[in-house]
Amino acid sequence: MSLSAAAQTAMTGVGRVDLLQKDSAIPGKELIQARVDFGHDALAPRHSHPGEEIAFVLKGTLQYQIDGQPPVTLHAGQSLFIPAGAVHSARNIGGGESQELATYVVEKGKPLVVLAK
Hints:
By secondary structure, this protein is mostly beta strands. It has one domain: Sandwich (Jelly Rolls). Helices cover 5% and strands 56% of the residues. It is built from one helix and ten strands. The protein has one helix at residues 5-10; strands at 14-23, 29-38, 43-48, 51-59, 61-66, 72-75, 79-82, 88-92, 98-107, 114-115. The strands form two sheets. It has a five-stranded antiparallel β-sheet with strand order 1-2-9-4-7, with no helix packed on it. A hairpin with a 5-residue loop joins strand 5 and strand 6 (72-75). It is globular and about 40 Å long. Pfam families: Cupin_2 (PF07883). This is Cupin domain-containing protein.
């Protein structure tokens, strides 16, 4: 589960803890689960994934922006489905640290995060 150097640099204040990586029963796909930690006002800039993502907010308040859709604000205990290849961003808009549990069903062997141009 790789992040490019550019993706790692662009996500200042955002860290991830990889929890699970397992081949899927769907040929060519893998399941990845990670905890993503957002510092105060941290931004995960516009990016996409080579598959679907389910973002579940564990702590704090995050605002998600999927291109072509209005922003969505989620609080702890709420979740959001992000379609495969959808360009999106996430920002911590709470007063402290925020966390999400990100679950992906993605194409095996492709970078997990691709920064948008």
